[in-house]
Amino acid sequence: xxxxxxxxxxxxxxxxxxxxxxxxxxxxxxxxLVITWIVLGIHGELVGPTLKILAIQTGVTFTGISTILSVRxxxxxxxxxxxxxxQNLVKQYPEALLSLAFFIASTGQSN
Length: 111
What we know:
By secondary structure, this protein is an all-alpha fold. The chain is 77% helix and 0% strand. It contains six helices and no strands.
């Protein structure tokens, strides 16, 4: 017979949030990832309603704005592929990679 550690057995017997109360780091990590996806969604969808204002302020046509947004999408794609490759390098600390990626994105947005 295969032996199973007590930790796995205890986790299977507990339900819902009770698992997280015994492991606060897992709860913090889950909250961090949920907030990250919410912020990423807001960041990605913020441009849509402000497209006309953005075109007026930059002095370009909607064609120019669509080109900029297409290039931005390509940047997200390249970043996702690079992040997937880097994920294998830092399997122990994926939160650090995510934090670094958002830090780089925020410094790029501020310039």
